[in-house]
Write a structure and sequence with these properties.
heterodimer, A: about 325 residues, Rossmann fold, 2 domains, six-stranded parallel beta sheet, 11 helices, about 35% helix, B: about 325 residues, alpha/beta
């Protein structure tokens, strides 16, 4: 009986040994994104996503050359050094829309494919951008805080500013920017945009610089990638051009804004307010923000809905299955 | 015109108070600790009352002002004014429709988003330094959820239009079905609640709509359902709402209004699935100024014998 049992175990592991190896490159909780299933045509080496990559390889050096796919997340870069460590790597799968934690150029050079979340999160991120905009303009979080303090009776709460009809400048007209535009059009807002290139099929007015965009709008919403050209694209000049009643919303990446300068402008009233889902050094947020009523702070949760988690788990799985069946990726980046 | 006595029964923006003071002999109800003092001194001269969403003129008060000609409300809702009494006595009533429609609709959507995506809660999370310990929990997607609207008037329609931008299917309940509407009609609030993820109260407060949100409706909306009230506090049976929230029978609530403002049930302060606002539906500089101009315009028209701008009675 015991022998039979052992044989079964050995059989199972030799089956697993024939399947391509996938590594989860993220924090321990990251395991929620991909759990082992009998239907998989791949084998997850570290279903608990612990210990981290370098420690795992140190403990299991033979696996360095067996890993053919990595599922990675922001904060766990796939850079030249990691790529060097995994010579058999053929696929990098990120459950995010952003890819700035992956050295795309190096992957391209090595013939490694990359998949992302595609448009899966676009609606949720766009919803959050609008949520932050309405909150800042109408002081929703500040008012909720005011009521819960139970100090003020009768109610004497400051007035907000009207959103309907405002001029909105969207930086980055990818899928998220388009979803934001669509939502705000239903509020009769006037949409204009800046992006790397003018989009010939879009009828919204295009401005070739964020400075011009800020000069001509009341609200700036950042929906673009973070790269060398967009780092600190919102600087002091842009903020002054936006003006004292202006609102900035950031659902892109923290470093799109000069955070120190933003804080100054908020404190000094050079801009009206800001709604921020991302920060330069997450999860660290400068504590000077905490006493401001004209800012709404959100802990990078643009895509963190139950619906999106179910969706991204399915998508990561589908991309891996497709890749290992020699089929095209569902959401390829390169 | 300076000899016309106008009584202000509610706090308004400084612009309105200053203009009323310039144009009329302005009396402010809060200058009189007892209403009886006010009436003794001025009841024979007051020709106009300016109220708001929370304070107007009931039958008793109207009877105590024999010279009253017009009640001009700094609000669109006039449930605090005894309209029948005004009709009976030939007293004009004006309100501030249209100018606040957009702001109230914007706020309704803002409340839905703040509630489903836990914007206020996660802002607190960051300010308390908790982000360093880990991410905020998953919240609920808004786009695509079914929105049920009670009252498809100006404000209800404006809310529907905005929700459509989020791909939300829209359904509604109102006194009569709107034949020209493309939205799905339900003949009862319970049925609407049963078939909606998010239920929005956007109708006027009348005898018929008092406590239109009762235990049955709340249970129909359910533990995954959300209630948004930008109407009047008395639309909702507030003790029923509180117990439903405490017992988990309702998913959450976004409330701009309460049965007994400025009182908010204390039990709500400990809940993370509610968003609480101090009746700010029309609370923007732009809109309150436009509302003020309507009040001033209506009063001016009345005292010049011209047609009123936005009469109800």
């Amino acid at each position: 009986m015991a022998n039979q049992k052992n044989n079964i175990i050995i059989e199972q592991s030799s089956e697993d040994n024939n399947l391509p190896k996938v590594f989860l490159h993220g924090p321990p909780k990251f395991s929620i994104v991909l759990q082992p299933k009998p239907s998989h045509n791949f084998h997850i080496l570290n279903p608990s996503s612990h210990p981290p990559l370098h420690e795992f390889i140190a403990l299991n050096p033979h696996h360095a050359s067996s890993i053919t796919a990595v599922v990675c997340t922001g904060g766990f870069p796939v850079n030249a050094e990691v790529l060097q460590l995994l010579p058999s790597l053929r696929l990098v799968c990120t459950p995010s829309a952003g890819t700035n934690h992956i050295d795309l150029f190096e992957c391209l050079r090595r013939g490694i494919q990359v998949s992302s979340a595609g448009n899966l999160f676009s609606e949720d991120v766009a919803d959050l951008a609008v949520a932050l905009l309405i909150d800042v303009g109408r002081k929703i979080s500040a008012a909720d805080r005011f009521l819960r303090s139970q100090l003020q009776k009768p109610w004497d709460f400051p007035l907000g500013s009207k959103l309907t009809g405002k001029k909105i400048g969207i930086v980055g007209m990818g899928r998220i920017g388009l979803e934001v535009a669509k939502r705000l059009e239903a509020f009769s807002c006037m949409i204009s945009y800046n992006s790397r290139n003018k989009k010939p099929l879009l009828s919204y007015p295009f401005f070739s610089s964020v400075l011009e965009l800020a000069t001509n709008t009341n609200v700036i919403i950042l929906c673009c990638d973070l790269n060398d050209q967009t780092r600190h694209i919102v600087n002091k000049e842009v903020m002054l051009a936006l003006g004292k009643g202006g609102i900035i919303v950031n659902v892109g990446r923290g470093a799109l804004i000069d955070e120190k300068e933003l804080l100054k402008c908020l404190i000094e009233g050079e801009i009206g307010g800001a709604g921020l889902d991302v920060f330069e050094n997450e999860p660290h947020v400068p504590k000077e923000f905490f006493s401001l009523d004209n800012v709404v702070l959100s802990p990078h949760k643009g895509a963190l809905t139950s619906e999106s988690l179910i969706g991204i788990s399915q998508l990561v799985e589908q991309n891996l299955k497709a890749f290992f069946s020699n089929k095209p990726l569902l959401t390829p980046v390169i | 015109m300076g000899s016309i006595s106008v009584l202000l029964v509610a706090k308004v923006i400084p612009y309105l108070e200053q203009e009323l003071n310039k144009r009329y002999n302005l009396l402010r109800i809060w200058d009189y600790p007892q209403k009886s003092q006010l009436l003794t001194q001025h009841s024979a001269s007051i020709r106009a009352v300016v109220g708001n969403a929370s304070a107007g003129a009931d039958a008793e008060f109207i009877d105590a002002l024999p010279k009253l000609e017009i009640v001009s409300s700094y609000s669109v809702g006039v449930d605090m004014i005894d309209l029948n009494k005004c009709k009976e006595k030939g007293i004009r009533v004006t309100n501030t429709p249209d100018v606040l429609t957009d702001d109230v609709a914007d706020l309704a959507i803002g409340l839905i988003l703040a509630l489903l995506r836990r914007i206020c809660e996660s802002d607190r999370y960051v300010r308390n330094g908790n982000w360093k310990s880990g991410d905020y929990k998953l919240t609920t997607k808004f786009s695509g959820k079914t929105v049920g609207i009670i009252g498809l008037g100006r404000i209800g329609t404006a809310i529907a239009k905005r929700a459509e931008g989020f791909n939300c299917p829209i359904s509604y309940f109102s006194r009569t079905q709107k034949q020209e509407s493309k939205y799905k009609y339900y003949p009862s609030v319970v049925e609407l609640a049963s078939n909606s993820d998010i239920l929005v109260v956007a109708c006027p407060l009348t005898e018929e709509t008092h406590h239109i949100i009762n235990r049955e409706v709340i249970n129909a909306l359910g533990p995954k359902g959300y209630l948004i009230n930008i109407g009047r506090g008395k639309h909702v049976d507030e003790p029923e709402l509180v117990s439903a929230l405490l017992e988990g029978r309702l998913g959450g609530a976004g409330l701009d209004v309460f049965e007994n403002e400025p009182h908010v049930p204390e039990e709500l302060f400990g809940l993370e699935n509610v968003v609480l606002l101090p009746h700010v539906g029309s609370g923007t500089v732009e809109t309150r100024t436009a509302m003020a101009d309507l009040v001033l315009g209506n009063l001016e028209a009345h005292f010049l014998g011209k047609p009123l701008l936005t009469p109800l009675v």
